[in-house]
Amino acid sequence: MGRDREVDPHALSVGAPIALVDCNNFYASCERVFQPRLRGKPVVVLSNNDGCVIARSNEAKALGVEMGAPWHLSKENFRKAGIVVRSSNYTLYGDMSARVMRVLADFTPNLEIYSIDEAFLSLAGFDARLDAHARDLRRTVQQWTGIPVSVGIAPTKTLAKVANRLAKKDAAAGGVCLLLSDQAQTEALGRLELTDLWGIAGRMAERLRAIGITTPLELREADHRLVRERFSVVMERMVLELRGIACLGLEEVTPDRKSLVASRSFGRPVETRRELEKAVSVYAGTRPAKTALFGGSIPVPIRP
Amino acid sequence: MGETAKRMGRPPGEPSKVVRLPLPVAALAKRLAERSLRAGDINAFFDVEPRRAATVPLMATSAACGFPSPADDYLDRPLDFNDLLIENPSATFAVRIAGESMKGAGLFPGDIAVVDRSRTAVDGSIVLALIDGEFTIKRYRKKGARIWLQAENPAFANIELNEDSGFEVWGVIAKSIRML
Question: In a 3-state reduction of DSSP, which class is residue A47?
Fold first, then answer.
């Protein structure tokens, strides 16, 4: 399968460069701003009832701490490994996020706040000095707010995500990665799995594999019309975005936020169904606002 | 749970990867309604204008520790304490003073120091510094290659700094609020 010659020549000329700025280990970094002694130490942040791990510093990741690890089961291991544990402080994280976003707004005419710790920036007009601009942005956020960020720049959002991933992974990149040339994009995509791509979960990857698309590069080379027929227009856009053709403008994409997950752990073993039902219904009853927001149906997954 | 996670399009992984949205739900719902946002829109999380717009009238004359003449036109323009105290909101933090080492500079225990991280420390700046991971407020002194921290209280010695001091300027004290 060759790349689509009708579309390809336009790939680099379509659309202005887009940056994805992502705060590194955001909650753990927020804690470190005000507790400098935590620098260089493994730090985890727990969910708001100290239920499970929701953020890990690089040092904690290196020690193999899993996202979502239940606190009551990990307590002893963390203590032995010298991992510093913090309860979450969402007021603080919200405040720090707002500061970071305000600084970012000084570096672009068009900012899309994508999540509490990520934003897309249009860098139209900065083409001649993208690298310097990105490094200046990164230094300013670090100095003003104390939060380290990574910057990925590419012609499309999907490739900017890839660039950001590399900016984080590759220590030599200094927190900034540009994927502007076809060669750089090809090289970067060659290092990834399908599920590393923005918006491709395990199930979609399985479906792609079933028709012989097993890597990001193969997906980029696929016939986009065929992909639309077999999957959806969303996947077709993914193919085009991987080719450097911007299909997703700023503020257009919204991640799947139709679901809200609240998890609670029991303080002691719950052994009967009746007891479990009672606990769940009491909890759900205390959250009418949540129920109203999401139209009434709440799936309750339970695991030991 | 694993199947549910897949259907919802989350990244693949172990079923224990429970993700939590850090949102106070009642406040979120209220903001969603106020701003006609879709459920789950992250923008609801931010207080776009967290600062309160309270202002107080500003006397146009300076008071020499006496009572200003009632005849003075007191309104130059209303004084907004936020404007007065905060130059760069993104980079401004507040910290309460502990200890008496900076009394001579007018910083007393219980006062609030306004710290601006976007300012660069120069010789003579009062800084919130880090020494081996501990915060301290001192006057930053720099003459050539020599850098030291100076207390504004004769009971405290200067702190000479070298490469091994684990020293860093966290921010420059731009203002202080004196608690009487």
Answer: coil
**What part of B 102-161 touches A (C-beta under 8 Å)?**
117-118, 130, 133-135
pLDDT in tens, A165-174: 999 988 788 9
Q: Taken in order B75, B80, B86, B87, is the CA torsion positive or negative? A: negative
Is the pLDDT score of A121 beyond 90? yes
Tell me: the pLDDT tens digits for A277-286?
777 666 665 5
CA-closest candidate to residue B46, choices A117, A290, A97, A107? A97
pLDDT digits (tens, 9 = 90+) for B94-103: 888 888 999 9
Q: Give the gap in angstroms from C-alpha B129 to the nearest C-alpha of chain A.
A: 11
Residue B37, burial from CB neighbour count under 10 angstroms (0-12, 13-18, 19+) = middle
Angle at A103 between CA A100 and CA A106, to 5 degrees: 150
Buried b (16+ CB within 10 A) or exposed e, A114-151: bebbbbbbbbeebeeebeebbeebbebbeebbbbbbbb
B49, B58 Cβ separation under 8 angstroms: no
Q: Considering CB atoms only, which of B21, B42, B43 is closest to A260?
A: B21
Task: With beta carbons under 8 A apart, name residues in chain B contacting A203.
Answer: 6-7
Could you give the ipTM of this predicted complex?
Answer: 0.74
CB B69 within 8 A of CB B138: no
Please tell me the pTM assigned to this model.
Answer: 0.73
Any A CB within 8 A of B51 CB: no
**Average pLDDT of the residues in A233-252:** 88
